[in-house]
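Appendix B. Chain record.
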Amino acid sequence: MDPLALLKAIILGLVEGLTEFLPVSSTAHLILLSQALGFERSETFKVVIQFGAILALVTVYFDKIWTTTTSLPSRAESRRFALSVILAFLPAIPAGILLEETLSRVFLADVISPTAGTIIASTLIAGGIIMLLVERFRPVPVHSDPEQLPLWKSFAVGCCQALALIPGVSRSGATIVGALTLGVDRRAAAEFSFFLSIPTMAAATVYKVYKDWDQLDFSNGALIGVGFVAAFIAAFIVVKPFLALVSRFGFAPFAFYRIALGLVVIGAIQIGLWG
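Structure tokens predicted for this chain:
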């Protein structure tokens, strides 16, 4: 096993875990980093490291998920919360089916064009600016419990999530910003985004496995395994501190980071370092 390839797999797994639930776009980071490192991400590698991040989130919130699931027959609040998450999940289904092939062809190749890189950088910057504006002008929060969102607001947050199919937008960023504009406080917005990510990412993973089953290859098991473990560990570590951070400082630090990263990418393209 090539030690350098192993190191690259660990780095990509860590980045997946660290960025999947932050409003900075994990897809954009993996695309940019894979291209910078010259690492060819197989379909299997992409699926498995994302599954590692999902599993970490389920582990962090296992008690909550278990309690909600087992109390569905007897507790109206659990049924309502489950319905809320389902309604938020629904808009991603038609959007994903309609756009997945086009977006994969443009953005998820092993080497993407400078035009695609510019689009990613632009969405990173635009998302950061929008996040700063929402932080500054958002309405006074009226919802502090992610389980008690009005159903129409849950669906609206899900519509925002559909925008995240474009790399650079960020699934968590889109859902959090959408929730903030609807009067949800920062922590509740982040937590609802976490809960919504579980069915969304699980469905995307299952769909990817079904669609690309003939392309899955576990011959590089060591690379896949270390990527999975790295993604799990990083995601497990980052979730709770992220909630504490946004509760205290808001989302501005992530917005400035997005803008800075987008400018670096545009600069790299302009001076010919891309590709």
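Further analysis of this model is presented in Appendix C.
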